[in-house]
Design brief:
alpha+beta; four-stranded mixed beta sheet; 167 residues
């Protein structure tokens, strides 16, 4: 009986210590409207929207947090596409009203992107809020001001409204 308990204990201990870590990306919508978030691993440095018309991630409610990506594995696993290593992942944020109302062709032609983040592994590591979890925000926070984005940091106020260029 002691041997059976020892075998079960060792089996459970090996299962708990041998698991791959879980990596997640969360998105905080501080905008006063719902948004869609989509990411592309395969096309950087070409940041043109793809013609699929599929925005996979559900609308993120205004002033809410959504879980937009999860994988079993470490952060570097995110940077492989079709067996090829890529160094940047592009995240696109859309006003859900635009995507829901207009055809995808119109969204692409008029480039109806609220914000695009082109994130390296280093960027995602700097945006980690806990081990294995990174947090993206729209509008971008002070912590995000050094990442590559379009339009540039400072275009939006803290509520997601475009700032006026009047002086």
């Amino acid at each position: 009986m002691k041997t059976l308990k020892l075998v079960i204990f060792l089996f459970l201990a090996s299962m708990l210590t041998g698991c791959d870590p879980l990596y997640s990306i969360y998105f905080v919508n501080r905008y006063d409207k719902n948004v869609y978030v989509e990411y592309y691993v395969s096309n950087y440095p070409d940041t043109t929207l793809l013609g699929t018309g599929c925005v996979y991630n559900p609308a993120t409610q205004s002033h809410d947090t959504a879980h937009i990506y999860e994988t079993i594995g470490r952060l570097p696993d995110f940077f492989y596409y079709g067996g090829t290593r890529v160094d940047t992942v592009s995240f696109f944020i859309f006003d859900s009203d635009s995507v829901d109302y207009y055809s995808w062709d119109t969204v692409v032609k008029k480039n109806m992107v609220l914000q695009r983040y082109d994130l390296s592994r280093f960027d995602l590591e700097n945006l980690m809020v806990s081990k294995g979890s990174s947090m993206l925000h729209f509008p971008p926070t002070e912590q995000m001001k050094h990442i590559h984005m379009w339009p540039p940091y400072g275009t939006y106020d803290e509520n997601g409204q475009k700032k006026s260029n009047k002086k």
